[in-house]
Prior knowledge:
Helix content is 39%, strand content 18%. It has a domain at 114-240: Mannose-Binding Protein A, Chain A (Roll), CATH 3.10.100. The strands form two sheets. Strands 2, 3, 4, 5, 6, 7 and 8 form a seven-stranded mixed β-sheet that branches. The relative contact order is 0.12. Residues 104-108 have low confidence and may be disordered. The chain is rod-shaped. It is of the alpha+beta class.
Amino acid sequence: MTEEITYADLEFNKSYALENIPKPAAPEEKGVPSSSSTWRLAALTFLILCLALLLGMLALGIVFFQVSSDFQKQIGNLTRNQETLQTNFSKRLQDMKNRLCLKGDENNENNGPSCTLCPANWQWMRGDTCFYISVQKKSWVESQKFCSLQNSTLLILKDQDKLNHVPARDKTQYYWIGLHKSRNNSWYWEDGSALSPVKENWIYLYPSYNCGYLYGEKINNYYSTEEHFWICEKAAVKLSM
Length: 241
């Protein structure tokens, strides 16, 4: 009887113990996040992108402002430099005019905003031509060569009025000019143009002689080998202010 009670007690205790053992919790199921979580994540991402864009635009604006400011300073410096250079150039040009420009005549034809320049030892009266009157004598060919080396020609007198532009000279002397006779006995000026039919009373040419010279206010001719003074002419340089 005692053994039966003891066995029954053991069986009861065993069953009770087994019933009271805590069962492990069931694992939570991993499912798809809810729509609320997805919206928050998207909003956060969008906010971060907006902040990044805002910071980028702010940085770009700062750089643009700095570059624009530097550019404006450079323009200001260039403008001041240009004004300084212009002022210095005007002063130098005025100084050059005072040093190099000819005095002009009584009508101040050479004292305006532009003036005429001639090489050293050349003379200017008016107009746009410089003249060289020699102080030594040469043949016509040597006189022509001298003028050519000076980038000029012997004096061409197609019009008697041009004599009013030729500087003062000794009118008792003979001066070779750019007039010569060709092999066909035709007369030509140094620029290649033919002498117009002589009707004026200031040109006297003789068949025996081949080169023209100026004597006083008249044109005559003689042998080219004869030595005389000569007159060269060339275009003057215009200096504008």
